[in-house]
């Protein structure tokens, strides 16, 4: 039994049970006692304790202290909360929030390994927000993977296990270290054992995104070393080929995050999150990313549209002049018409060019002064109208109003062209003003078909997370309930969990009676019950040969599917013992018969008596 279970750590936490074990630490479920401690009494917490065998390893103790320092800096809704840290010579532990739910790995396995584009964006966005906060506090996680992310019932994620995270300060950059982290998700530089930075976490997020969208890992092998080598040198199978249904903007985002060279990845979690948000607002966006090649770092590769050559210009040849003259003579009657069309076309082109050039920024054609746009994001409408550029008429404002949960009502949250751009006087700029947070009411979707319920919620502007549960009273594929419940008012963009009824999957079956059946009939019946026929032992009985006369699991017993039932089979009746064969030699007379002359048969005896008086002992 674990020697910590039942103990009270520093009199503050009552350890109840072991709930997880990692490479260097165990995680326990405990209850806070609240005796002048940082956690209210009765709160269920998770306590991560460094294993005893590592307490005297200075490197691991230092790593554990780094983790303690790292996660104590983090306070974010997508990161597991840390309540308390204790690092002493006799015991090192971290007290964290106890999260109910399943890991993202378990959820992926439950959904067959592949998620929808919407779910992927929903989960990856939360992970990036958590990393954005961690990186801003100097913490690089270095072990981002689905197993280290908890999924709560409300669809919110919690990142945990900063077990190999370290502070990215200058003094810690001396720790080049080994290739740490889960090999299927580590970056190429991490696989080499090089220094890691926030871009290493970006790579891991890209691998997770690739897995969610395609249902498979980019690199896999039976040996961890082979996977690490592939992370360094191999290119994954293109996402667009193995998952052609994935929107191309998401393919571009995934490929950039998974670039081998850190310089080609997103510079930060914020930049990748911005790309996802742009895709949500504009699903047909084309990013057209530029990549630096590893062979020639100074060379920039950019996709360009191929231009088709005019087949008539091949080799510099032109139609013969003689033929042109013949054609012109043949169609001379149409020359006046063609000339008129040509003149009209030239006049139209001239007018169009004049209109374009009149509004161009060419100083020869446009005498309006240039101005540099001010930044109006965050200002109110009245503040914008009172600004010098607007009040003097240097620029014209076109107002757009939209709901936005980040900015308060009446505040500008988007500007086009952006601040700092040089424009001409009189140019129009577009400012989008927030109408505040839009709230929607969750309708009662009970017994709706899943697809219809999802469509209703999407039209309301909320994200949907589907979780399947067994509910006998609701038809399979229909909605059981929602969380938040029907009638609840939530901000647009919130996540609504849709609980959908699924079929009960039986894991047990009842053993039938196979006594009296032939072996083949018994096998067939067991297979029908999702069982298998086990060993067959023969025994004598009055039943026909090959008939089952006994089974080791009694009929009516509930067992797990695919269990084996061993049987005893009749070998027929037991054979009778063989009779003793009669002796071929004449029986010899007994001792007393010989002694008293009584031996032999009756005939011989009578014959003997008539012929011989026999022998008489002298004392008679």
Describe this entry's structure for a reader:
The chain is of the alpha+beta class. Helix 3 runs antiparallel to helix 5, helix 5 (198-214) packs antiparallel against helix 8 and helix 8 (248-257) runs antiparallel to helix 9 (269-281). The protein is extended, with a radius of gyration of 44 Å.
List its salient traits:
620 residues, alpha+beta, Phosphorylase Kinase, domain 1, Transferase(Phosphotransferase), domain 1, Trypsin Inhibitor V, Chain A, 6 domains, six-stranded antiparallel sheet, three-stranded antiparallel sheet, 17 helices, 28 strands, 29% helix, extended
Architecture blueprint of SSEs:
Elements: E1 8-9, E2 13-21, E3 25-32, E4 44-50, H1 58-72, E5 82-87, E6 92-97, E7 102-103, H2 104-110, H3 117-136, E8 139-140, E9 149-151, E10 157-159, E11 166-167, H4 188-192, H5 198-214, H6 224-233, H7 239-242, H8 248-257, H9 269-281, E12 291-292, E13 300-301, H10 321-330, H11 335-358, E14 370-372, H12 381-385, H13 388-391, E15 395-402, E16 412-416, E17 422-424, E18 427-434, E19 439-441, H14 450-460, E20 463-470, E21 479-483, E22 489-491, E23 495-502, E24 508-510, H15 519-528, E25 532-539, E26 548-551, E27 558-560, E28 564-570, H16 591-596, H17 602-611
Parallel strand pairs: 15-18, 20-23, 25-28
Antiparallel strand pairs: 1-2, 2-3, 3-4, 4-6, 5-6, 7-9, 8-11, 9-10, 12-13, 14-17, 16-18, 19-22, 21-23, 24-27, 26-28
Helix pairs in contact: 3-5, 3-9, 5-8, 8-9
């Amino acid at each position: 039994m674990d020697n910590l279970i039942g103990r009270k750590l520093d009199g503050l936490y009552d350890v109840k049970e072991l709930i997880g074990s990692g490479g260097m630490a165990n995680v326990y479920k405990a209850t806070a006692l609240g005796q002048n401690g940082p956690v209210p009494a009765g709160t269920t917490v998770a306590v991560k304790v460094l294993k005893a065998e590592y307490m005297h390893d200075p490197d691991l103790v230092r790593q554990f202290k780094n983790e303690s320092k790292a996660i104590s800096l983090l306070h974010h809704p997508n990161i597991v909360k840390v309540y308390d840290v204790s690092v002493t010579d006799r015991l090192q532990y971290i007290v964290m929030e106890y999260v109910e739910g399943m890991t993202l790995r378990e959820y992926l396995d439950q959904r067959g390994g592949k998620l929808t584009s919407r779910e992927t964006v929903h989960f990856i966005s939360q992970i990036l927000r958590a990393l954005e906060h961690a990186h801003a506090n100097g913490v690089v996680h270095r072990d981002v993977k689905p197993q280290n992310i908890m999924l709560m019932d409300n669809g919110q994620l919690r990142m945990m296990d900063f077990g190999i995270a370290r502070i990215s300060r200058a003094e810690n950059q001396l720790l080049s270290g080994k290739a740490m982290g889960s090999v299927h998700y580590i970056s190429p530089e991490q696989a080499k054992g090089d220094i890691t930075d926030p871009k290493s976490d970006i790579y891991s997020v890209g691998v997770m995104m690739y897995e969610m969208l395609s249902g498979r890992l980019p690199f896999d092998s039976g040996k961890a070393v082979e996977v690490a080598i592939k992370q360094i040198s191999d290119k994954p199978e293109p996402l667009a080929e193995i998952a052609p249904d994935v929107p191309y903007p998401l393919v571009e985002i995934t490929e950039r995050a998974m670039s081998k060279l850190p310089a080609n990845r997103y510079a930060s979690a914020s930049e990748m999150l911005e790309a996802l948000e742009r895709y949500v607002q504009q699903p047909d966006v084309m990013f057209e990313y530029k990549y630096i090649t590893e062979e020639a770092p100074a060379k920039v590769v950019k996709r360009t549209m191929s231009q088709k050559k005019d087949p008539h210009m091949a080799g510099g040849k032109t139609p013969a002049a003689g033929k042109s003259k013949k054609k012109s003579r043949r169609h001379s009657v149409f020359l006046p018409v063609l000339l008129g069309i040509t003149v009209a076309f030239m006049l139209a082109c001239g007018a169009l060019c004049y209109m374009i050039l009149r509004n161009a920024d060419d100083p020869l054609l446009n005498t309006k002064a240039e101005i540099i746009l001010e930044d109006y994001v965050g200002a109110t409408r009245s503040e914008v109208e009172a600004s010098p550029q607007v009040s003097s008429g240097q620029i014209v404002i076109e107002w757009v109003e939209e709901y936005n949960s980040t900015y308060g009502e009446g505040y500008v949250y988007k500007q086009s062209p952006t601040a700092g751009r040089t424009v001409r006087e009189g140019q129009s700029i577009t400012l989008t003003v927030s109408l505040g947070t839009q709230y929607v009411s969750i309708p009662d979707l009970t017994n709706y078909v899943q697809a219809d319920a999802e469509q209703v919620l999407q039209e309301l502007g909320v994200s949907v997370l589907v979780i399947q549960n067994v509910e006998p009273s609701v038809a399979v594929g229909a909605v059981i309930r929602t969380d938040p419940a029907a009638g609840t008012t939530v901000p647009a963009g919130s996540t609504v969990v849709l609980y959908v009824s699924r079929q009960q999957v039986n894991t047990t079956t009842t053993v039938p009676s196979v006594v009296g059946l032939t072996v083949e009939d018994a096998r067939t019946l067991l297979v029908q019950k999702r069982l298998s026929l086990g060993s067959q032992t023969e025994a004598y009985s009055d039943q026909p040969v090959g008939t089952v006369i006994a089974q080791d699991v009694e009929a009516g017993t509930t067992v797990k599917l695919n269990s084996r039932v061993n049987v005893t089979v009749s070998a027929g009746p037991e054979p009778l013992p063989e009779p003793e064969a009669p002796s071929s030699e004449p029986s010899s007379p007994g001792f007393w018969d010989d002694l008293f002359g009584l031996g032999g048969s009756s005939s011989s005896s009578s014959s003997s008596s008539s012929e011989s008086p026999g022998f008489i002992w002298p004392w008679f």
